[in-house]
Amino acid sequence: MTHPHAASRPTQAVVLAGGQGSRLRPYTDDRPKPMVEIPGTGTPIIGHQLTWLAEEGVTDVVVSCGHLAEVLQDWLKTADLPVNVMTVVETEPLGRGGGLKYAAARLPHPDRPWYATNGDIWTRFSLREMADFHTERDAVATLALARPRIPWGAVKTDGFGHITDFIEAPPTTYEINAGVYVFSPEFAGLLPERGDHERTTFPHLARERRLAGFPIPQGAYWRAIDTAKDLTEAAKELAALGR
Known about the structure:
By secondary structure, this protein is an alpha/beta fold. It has seven helices and eleven strands. The strands form three sheets. It has a seven-stranded mixed sheet with strand order 3-2-1-4-9-6-10, with helices on both faces. Strand 7 (154-157) and strand 8 (163-167) form a beta hairpin. The model has no long low-confidence stretch (mean pLDDT 88). Residues 13-239 form the Nucleotidyl transferase domain.
């Protein structure tokens, strides 16, 4: 039996791959951030993302390039890709919202919903479940929410100031924007021509109760690859997962 929301699950996505990745130097001296390889896998971050999107029913992807775009474009030309990929390059900086709007204009089905992901996110969870959650809440935009681990050990105390426990790198109690999205067709029209949608479009939708937050299921893998330490941690975690 087909799921009642199956028809509203996106088959198209935008990957935002234009960032400088300055905190990942020297890895990003000669390549954009999404082209940095996860140690031990032989595949760049974007390769893992495209595989994940394909597994989740996506057939068409628009990759928005910027910094060292040609390196990414050359790789896409030679790689054995599981989806149809088209690249767009901003000729001038449009900001995050403007860049998203520019890329969305090249999606093959502007009248259908779409996924978007930041180019430095390395994750695995059910996008189909997230799409159904988005439909059920009649949202215009849905953000995946993660609880990242804090990089320090935490200390628990009792009411008298005695330390009762040490917890190594616990998850934060706050949920953060995990950099993965589901957007309804009308979302692209609400984006600014230039500037940051997280300061304009998102707060506007939140006030209207049309912005939803999908908590990434507990135990699902999620990591933003922002620094060299994130790369080594990702490699360790993958080894532990036996992938």
